[in-house]
Structure formats: structure tokens, C-alpha cells
Amino acid sequence: MKRVIGLLVLLLVCIAPAGEVSAASASGSETVWVCGGPNSKRYHKSKNCKGLKRCSKSPKSMSREDANKNGYTACKICYRH
Ligand SMILES: [Zn+2]
Predict the structure, then answer these.
(1) Which of 1, 58, 68, 80 gets the most CB atoms within 10 Å of its CB?
(2) The whole model's pTM is what?
């Protein structure tokens, strides 16, 4: 039985995309969008957010964790409750 579980874990590890595993942590790997401009401090849930329309640069995607690490805060339009 133990061997079966081990095999199953191995299978799951193989299925998971390699690039995502290292970036993802306990908080998950949600992808967010930020404006590439120097004054942008918000990350967005959607690339098509109104807040990104004003961005003169093209939006780039990153994990939400990375956005937080880089000092970005959640867009109030995308993340209103
Ligand atoms: Zn937004």
C-alpha cells in the first residue's frame, strides 16, 4: 500500500509543470498582471482591467507572490470584496 502512495505522489510531481512548482508555495500560484511602467504599484487579476488600460507599457504577468514581494498591492477594481 505504501508503494502505491509513493507511486501516486511521483505521478503527481511529474504531472505538475516544472516551472510552476518552484514559484508556487503554500499560498498558491495565482497569476496576476502588472504594468511594466515605473510608477505602477498595482497588480491585477485580469489583463483587461480598467486600471491597466492607462498603462503605457504592455502588461506583464507574474505570480501573485512575486508581485507582493516586489511591492505591488492588489488593484481595488480587481480585488474589491
Ligand atoms: Zn485591476
Answers:
(1) 68
(2) 0.62
